[in-house]
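Q: For a teaching handout, I want to show students what a protein-ligand complex looks like in C-alpha coordinate form. Below are the inputs, and the small molecule is calcium ion. Please produce the holo structure.
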Amino acid sequence: MVHQLRLVSRSPHLNVMCNAAFKAARGLVRDFGEVEQLQVSRKGPGDFVSTADKKAEDIIYKELKKARPSYGFLMEEGGKIEGEEEYTWIIDPLDGTSNFLHGIPHFAISIGLQKGSEMIAGVIYDPIKDELFYAEKGGGAFLNDRRLRVSGRQHMSEALFSTAIPFAMHDAKTRAEFQKSMDVVIPLVAGLRRFGAASLDFAYVAAGRFDGYWERPLQPWDMAAGLVLVREAGGYVCDLQGGDDILGTGSILAANAFLYQPLKDLVLPVYKF
Ligand code: IPD
Ligand code: CA
Ligand code: CA
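A: Here is the structure, written as C-alpha coordinates, with calcium ion included.
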Protein backbone atom coordinates (compact mmCIF):
# COMPACT_ATOMS: atom_id res chain seq x y z
CA MET A 1 0.00 0.00 0.00
CA VAL A 2 2.32 2.64 -1.30
CA HIS A 3 -0.13 5.52 -0.92
CA GLN A 4 0.11 5.50 2.81
CA LEU A 5 3.75 6.40 2.55
CA ARG A 6 3.39 9.20 0.08
CA LEU A 7 2.97 12.78 1.17
CA VAL A 8 -0.26 13.53 -0.61
CA SER A 9 -2.41 16.38 0.58
CA ARG A 10 -5.94 15.18 0.97
CA SER A 11 -8.68 16.83 3.02
CA PRO A 12 -9.20 15.72 6.63
CA HIS A 13 -12.34 13.81 5.61
CA LEU A 14 -10.57 12.00 2.78
CA ASN A 15 -7.62 11.19 5.03
CA VAL A 16 -9.88 9.60 7.59
CA MET A 17 -11.69 7.61 4.90
CA CYS A 18 -8.50 6.46 3.17
CA ASN A 19 -6.92 5.38 6.43
CA ALA A 20 -10.00 3.36 7.38
CA ALA A 21 -10.00 1.70 3.95
CA PHE A 22 -6.27 0.87 4.13
CA LYS A 23 -6.62 -0.62 7.58
CA ALA A 24 -9.57 -2.83 6.57
CA ALA A 25 -7.82 -3.80 3.33
CA ARG A 26 -4.99 -5.55 5.16
CA GLY A 27 -7.39 -8.13 6.57
CA LEU A 28 -9.24 -8.50 3.29
CA VAL A 29 -6.03 -9.19 1.37
CA ARG A 30 -4.98 -11.77 3.97
CA ASP A 31 -8.39 -13.43 3.83
CA PHE A 32 -8.43 -13.36 0.04
CA GLY A 33 -5.22 -15.35 0.12
CA GLU A 34 -6.96 -17.97 2.22
CA VAL A 35 -10.29 -17.71 0.50
CA GLU A 36 -10.82 -21.43 0.44
CA GLN A 37 -10.52 -21.71 4.19
CA LEU A 38 -12.98 -18.90 4.89
CA GLN A 39 -16.03 -19.82 6.89
CA VAL A 40 -18.86 -18.50 4.79
CA SER A 41 -22.43 -18.05 5.86
CA ARG A 42 -25.22 -17.64 3.35
CA LYS A 43 -27.44 -14.58 3.49
CA GLY A 44 -29.36 -15.51 0.35
CA PRO A 45 -28.66 -16.89 -3.11
CA GLY A 46 -25.77 -15.06 -4.67
CA ASP A 47 -25.40 -12.74 -1.72
CA PHE A 48 -22.79 -14.19 0.60
CA VAL A 49 -21.55 -12.62 3.73
CA SER A 50 -18.09 -13.76 4.63
CA THR A 51 -16.14 -13.47 7.80
CA ALA A 52 -13.86 -11.11 5.93
CA ASP A 53 -16.76 -8.87 5.10
CA LYS A 54 -17.86 -8.45 8.71
CA LYS A 55 -14.31 -7.98 10.01
CA ALA A 56 -13.64 -5.29 7.41
CA GLU A 57 -16.83 -3.42 8.27
CA ASP A 58 -15.98 -3.55 11.95
CA ILE A 59 -12.53 -2.06 11.34
CA ILE A 60 -13.94 0.73 9.15
CA TYR A 61 -16.69 1.49 11.66
CA LYS A 62 -14.23 1.75 14.56
CA GLU A 63 -11.80 3.95 12.63
CA LEU A 64 -14.47 6.36 11.43
CA LYS A 65 -16.24 6.44 14.78
CA LYS A 66 -12.97 7.28 16.53
CA ALA A 67 -12.23 10.10 14.08
CA ARG A 68 -15.75 11.60 13.94
CA PRO A 69 -17.77 10.36 16.94
CA SER A 70 -20.91 12.33 16.10
CA TYR A 71 -21.40 11.19 12.48
CA GLY A 72 -24.04 8.62 11.51
CA PHE A 73 -23.54 5.37 9.60
CA LEU A 74 -25.26 3.39 6.88
CA MET A 75 -23.51 0.05 6.49
CA GLU A 76 -24.29 -3.05 4.48
CA GLU A 77 -23.95 -5.35 7.44
CA GLY A 78 -24.62 -3.09 10.41
CA GLY A 79 -27.48 -1.09 8.92
CA LYS A 80 -28.33 2.46 9.89
CA ILE A 81 -26.93 4.18 12.98
CA GLU A 82 -28.20 7.71 13.50
CA GLY A 83 -25.60 10.35 14.24
CA GLU A 84 -25.88 13.66 16.01
CA GLU A 85 -24.88 15.63 12.94
CA GLU A 86 -25.97 15.87 9.32
CA TYR A 87 -23.02 13.70 8.20
CA THR A 88 -23.43 9.98 7.39
CA TRP A 89 -20.77 7.48 6.36
CA ILE A 90 -22.13 5.02 3.77
CA ILE A 91 -20.04 1.85 3.75
CA ASP A 92 -19.68 -1.30 1.70
CA PRO A 93 -16.78 -3.13 3.37
CA LEU A 94 -16.44 -5.63 0.53
CA ASP A 95 -18.01 -4.87 -2.82
CA GLY A 96 -17.64 -7.75 -5.23
CA THR A 97 -18.26 -10.53 -2.70
CA SER A 98 -18.92 -13.18 -5.32
CA ASN A 99 -15.61 -12.38 -7.02
CA PHE A 100 -13.85 -12.50 -3.65
CA LEU A 101 -15.28 -15.88 -2.75
CA HIS A 102 -14.38 -17.30 -6.14
CA GLY A 103 -10.80 -16.09 -5.91
CA ILE A 104 -11.27 -13.44 -8.61
CA PRO A 105 -9.15 -10.39 -7.78
CA HIS A 106 -11.74 -7.71 -8.49
CA PHE A 107 -13.34 -6.27 -5.37
CA ALA A 108 -13.15 -3.08 -3.34
CA ILE A 109 -13.88 -1.25 -0.14
CA SER A 110 -16.27 1.64 -0.68
CA ILE A 111 -16.78 4.53 1.75
CA GLY A 112 -18.95 7.52 0.95
CA LEU A 113 -19.70 10.60 3.02
CA GLN A 114 -23.14 12.17 2.84
CA LYS A 115 -24.02 15.62 4.17
CA GLY A 116 -27.78 15.98 4.47
CA SER A 117 -28.99 14.30 1.29
CA GLU A 118 -25.89 15.13 -0.76
CA MET A 119 -22.88 12.89 -1.35
CA ILE A 120 -19.78 14.98 -0.69
CA ALA A 121 -16.85 12.54 -0.65
CA GLY A 122 -16.01 9.03 -1.77
CA VAL A 123 -13.16 6.54 -1.45
CA ILE A 124 -13.03 3.24 -3.34
CA TYR A 125 -9.99 1.08 -2.71
CA ASP A 126 -9.09 -1.99 -4.75
CA PRO A 127 -6.46 -3.58 -2.52
CA ILE A 128 -5.28 -6.23 -4.98
CA LYS A 129 -4.39 -3.74 -7.71
CA ASP A 130 -3.50 -1.16 -5.05
CA GLU A 131 -5.74 1.38 -6.76
CA LEU A 132 -7.13 4.09 -4.57
CA PHE A 133 -9.93 6.09 -6.19
CA TYR A 134 -11.09 9.14 -4.26
CA ALA A 135 -12.99 12.35 -4.77
CA GLU A 136 -14.46 15.20 -2.82
CA LYS A 137 -17.15 17.56 -4.03
CA GLY A 138 -15.45 20.51 -5.74
CA GLY A 139 -11.98 18.99 -5.36
CA GLY A 140 -11.73 16.68 -8.36
CA ALA A 141 -11.36 12.92 -8.62
CA PHE A 142 -8.10 10.99 -8.30
CA LEU A 143 -6.59 7.56 -8.83
CA ASN A 144 -3.66 7.25 -6.47
CA ASP A 145 -2.01 10.63 -7.13
CA ARG A 146 -3.30 11.15 -10.65
CA ARG A 147 -6.24 13.40 -11.52
CA LEU A 148 -9.10 11.53 -13.18
CA ARG A 149 -11.20 12.52 -16.12
CA VAL A 150 -13.99 10.54 -17.82
CA SER A 151 -13.30 9.30 -21.34
CA GLY A 152 -13.63 11.51 -24.40
CA ARG A 153 -15.20 8.88 -26.66
CA GLN A 154 -18.06 10.30 -28.63
CA HIS A 155 -19.46 7.42 -30.61
CA MET A 156 -21.45 4.42 -29.50
CA SER A 157 -19.53 2.28 -31.96
CA GLU A 158 -16.31 2.81 -29.97
CA ALA A 159 -17.87 2.72 -26.50
CA LEU A 160 -17.24 0.12 -23.80
CA PHE A 161 -20.02 0.00 -21.22
CA SER A 162 -20.49 -1.85 -17.98
CA THR A 163 -23.70 -3.28 -16.56
CA ALA A 164 -24.85 -6.20 -14.42
CA ILE A 165 -26.30 -9.59 -15.29
CA PRO A 166 -29.20 -10.62 -13.05
CA PHE A 167 -28.89 -13.84 -11.11
CA ALA A 168 -31.00 -16.14 -8.95
CA MET A 169 -32.13 -13.52 -6.44
CA HIS A 170 -33.61 -11.30 -9.17
CA ASP A 171 -37.23 -11.49 -10.33
CA ALA A 172 -38.55 -12.14 -13.84
CA LYS A 173 -39.09 -8.43 -14.48
CA THR A 174 -35.46 -7.62 -13.73
CA ARG A 175 -34.32 -10.43 -16.01
CA ALA A 176 -36.62 -9.18 -18.79
CA GLU A 177 -35.30 -5.62 -18.41
CA PHE A 178 -31.76 -6.91 -18.70
CA GLN A 179 -32.52 -8.89 -21.83
CA LYS A 180 -34.28 -5.95 -23.45
CA SER A 181 -31.38 -3.63 -22.60
CA MET A 182 -29.01 -6.08 -24.26
CA ASP A 183 -31.19 -6.12 -27.38
CA VAL A 184 -31.02 -2.36 -27.77
CA VAL A 185 -27.40 -1.75 -26.72
CA ILE A 186 -25.41 -4.69 -28.11
CA PRO A 187 -25.94 -3.91 -31.80
CA LEU A 188 -24.44 -0.44 -31.39
CA VAL A 189 -21.41 -0.70 -29.11
CA ALA A 190 -17.80 -1.86 -29.03
CA GLY A 191 -18.36 -3.98 -25.94
CA LEU A 192 -20.14 -4.68 -22.68
CA ARG A 193 -18.65 -5.91 -19.41
CA ARG A 194 -19.99 -7.40 -16.19
CA PHE A 195 -17.10 -7.24 -13.71
CA GLY A 196 -19.13 -7.76 -10.54
CA ALA A 197 -18.21 -4.87 -8.23
CA ALA A 198 -20.50 -1.88 -8.65
CA SER A 199 -18.19 0.54 -6.85
CA LEU A 200 -15.42 -0.26 -9.33
CA ASP A 201 -17.82 0.18 -12.25
CA PHE A 202 -18.31 3.77 -11.09
CA ALA A 203 -14.58 4.20 -10.50
CA TYR A 204 -13.78 2.88 -13.98
CA VAL A 205 -16.20 5.35 -15.56
CA ALA A 206 -14.48 8.12 -13.61
CA ALA A 207 -11.12 6.84 -14.82
CA GLY A 208 -12.22 6.76 -18.47
CA ARG A 209 -11.85 2.98 -18.66
CA PHE A 210 -15.57 2.48 -19.19
CA ASP A 211 -17.47 5.07 -21.22
CA GLY A 212 -20.65 4.44 -19.30
CA TYR A 213 -22.44 2.16 -16.86
CA TRP A 214 -25.99 1.34 -15.87
CA GLU A 215 -27.49 -1.02 -13.33
CA ARG A 216 -30.46 -1.78 -11.15
CA PRO A 217 -31.23 -2.84 -8.49
CA LEU A 218 -28.44 -1.52 -6.29
CA GLN A 219 -28.12 -0.43 -2.68
CA PRO A 220 -26.90 2.98 -1.44
CA TRP A 221 -23.58 1.52 -0.27
CA ASP A 222 -22.87 0.19 -3.79
CA MET A 223 -23.16 3.70 -5.25
CA ALA A 224 -22.48 6.36 -2.61
CA ALA A 225 -18.73 6.81 -3.10
CA GLY A 226 -18.86 6.16 -6.84
CA LEU A 227 -21.31 8.98 -7.47
CA VAL A 228 -18.87 11.57 -6.20
CA LEU A 229 -16.08 10.08 -8.28
CA VAL A 230 -18.00 10.12 -11.55
CA ARG A 231 -19.32 13.66 -11.03
CA GLU A 232 -15.91 15.00 -10.02
CA ALA A 233 -14.32 13.36 -13.05
CA GLY A 234 -16.70 15.26 -15.31
CA GLY A 235 -19.22 12.48 -15.86
CA TYR A 236 -22.99 12.66 -15.81
CA VAL A 237 -25.34 10.53 -13.75
CA CYS A 238 -29.08 9.95 -13.40
CA ASP A 239 -31.35 7.25 -12.05
CA LEU A 240 -33.00 4.85 -14.48
CA GLN A 241 -36.15 6.96 -14.46
CA GLY A 242 -34.12 9.92 -15.71
CA GLY A 243 -34.24 11.74 -12.35
CA ASP A 244 -31.63 12.32 -9.69
CA ASP A 245 -32.94 10.00 -6.97
CA ILE A 246 -30.13 7.52 -7.52
CA LEU A 247 -29.81 6.31 -3.94
CA GLY A 248 -33.59 6.27 -3.43
CA THR A 249 -34.45 4.33 -6.61
CA GLY A 250 -31.40 2.04 -6.34
CA SER A 251 -30.60 2.62 -9.99
CA ILE A 252 -27.85 4.33 -11.95
CA LEU A 253 -26.89 5.41 -15.41
CA ALA A 254 -23.50 7.09 -15.68
CA ALA A 255 -21.53 8.16 -18.75
CA ASN A 256 -19.22 10.72 -20.22
CA ALA A 257 -20.69 13.96 -21.52
CA PHE A 258 -20.96 12.74 -25.12
CA LEU A 259 -22.53 9.35 -24.55
CA TYR A 260 -24.79 10.25 -21.63
CA GLN A 261 -27.78 11.30 -23.72
CA PRO A 262 -27.46 8.55 -26.36
CA LEU A 263 -27.17 5.91 -23.63
CA LYS A 264 -30.18 7.37 -21.80
CA ASP A 265 -32.22 7.33 -25.00
CA LEU A 266 -31.48 3.65 -25.45
CA VAL A 267 -31.70 2.34 -21.94
CA LEU A 268 -34.28 4.41 -20.04
CA PRO A 269 -37.33 3.22 -22.04
CA VAL A 270 -36.44 -0.34 -21.04
CA TYR A 271 -36.74 0.30 -17.31
CA LYS A 272 -40.25 0.82 -15.94
CA PHE A 273 -40.40 0.69 -12.16
C1 IPD B 1 -22.76 -6.48 -5.45
C2 IPD B 1 -21.82 -5.97 -6.53
C3 IPD B 1 -22.35 -6.29 -7.91
C4 IPD B 1 -23.75 -5.79 -8.11
C5 IPD B 1 -24.67 -6.34 -7.03
C6 IPD B 1 -24.15 -5.95 -5.65
P1 IPD B 1 -21.74 -7.09 -3.07
O1 IPD B 1 -22.32 -6.06 -4.18
O2 IPD B 1 -21.63 -4.59 -6.44
O3 IPD B 1 -21.54 -5.72 -8.92
O4 IPD B 1 -24.22 -6.18 -9.38
O5 IPD B 1 -25.96 -5.85 -7.20
O6 IPD B 1 -25.00 -6.49 -4.67
O7 IPD B 1 -22.86 -7.99 -2.66
O8 IPD B 1 -20.62 -7.82 -3.70
O9 IPD B 1 -21.31 -6.16 -1.97
CA1 CA C 1 -21.97 -4.07 -2.85
CA1 CA D 1 -20.74 -5.97 0.16
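A: Two things your students might notice: Residues 76, 92, 94-95, 97 surround calcium ion (ligand 3) (CB under 6 Å). The radius of gyration is 18 Å.
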